[in-house]
Amino acid sequence: MDTSIFPEKSKKPGDTELSGALGKTFQYWKTIEEYVLSKMPAAKKEWYFFSVKYGWGFRIKDTKRAIIYLGPRKKHFVVTMVFGQKVYDKIIASPVNPLIKEELNASKVYPEGRVVRLEIKTKALLKDIEQLIDFKMAK
Asked: Rounded distance, CA 63 to CA 55, Å?
């Protein structure tokens, strides 16, 4: 996967820069962002600078954890989510897109859980991402 298209620490991106960089996929970014906030209105959105290599990224988090990471790329973006074992088991047993299940199964297991990274170039995975968000936020 590519690295961020916003590599300069001194230039934090906003919606104008993001829209220009993502093109038609900007609407998919906003759909995901709005979905998370509709489920958890108190969640905080924030841009963060990861490193010179990876540049600026965006995350939405509650008080304890990140819910979702969005990484801007040229004309698309990457969704990253981390799932603990219990949620992973629920996802595997669900009707979520097999591509996502394959990605999770192939993921290295970290102390925080398994990571899924999905390149978003079309709206094809949006409903699946909403399901992943629901799983992540279920208590």
From this structure: 24
